[in-house]
Amino acid sequence: MLTRVDPGPAVVVCNTCRHSRAARDDAEGVRGGARLAAALTRLKEREPRYAGIAVQEMACLFACQDHCTVHLRAPGKIGYVLGRFQGDADSARAILDYAVQYAASEHGRVAYSLWPEGIKGHFITRTPPPGFIAE
Fold first, then answer.
1. Ramachandran region of residue 105, left (φ > 0), alpha (ψ -120 to 50) or beta?
2. Contact call for residues 45 and 101 (beta carbons, < 8 A)
3. Are 25 and 9 in contact (CB under 8 A)?
4. 89 CA to centre of own chain
5. Can you name the residues that pair with 72 across neighbouring β-strands?
6. 16-62 pLDDT, tens per residue?
7. Cα(37)–Cα(16) distance, rounded to whole angstroms?
8. Which residues have CB under 8 Å from 45's CB, separation 6+?
9. With a threshold of 0.85, does the pTM exceed it?
């Protein structure tokens, strides 16, 4: 059931997410999560500044009401689940730009002034790392 992956900073993308609450697949039969995963992977491969962030895919993050979801995580840091994205390059860039700031932060908190515009309003939950709670 579990697959071991690099434990470093990562964006775990739900590759089975819908495009929206109303639309499961696009006109070509591709799910929103699969499109977002592909956009994240393409952008990461093209831009060296994202080299420290892994893009990992997983089926269903159980956030179906919030479609196109990702889980941002890193050892010893607060984790975040974000959703309601489009499966496009703009969403991928906003997610990865935030992930770079997140990875550089001490505990996973990024000053609001550093948030890319495309990430605002997309946070669903935050989760403490094992053995901690957040203040």
1. beta
2. no
3. no
4. 13
5. 11, 80
6. 887 777 766 666 777 889 999 999 999 999 999 999 999 999 999 99
7. 10
8. none
9. yes
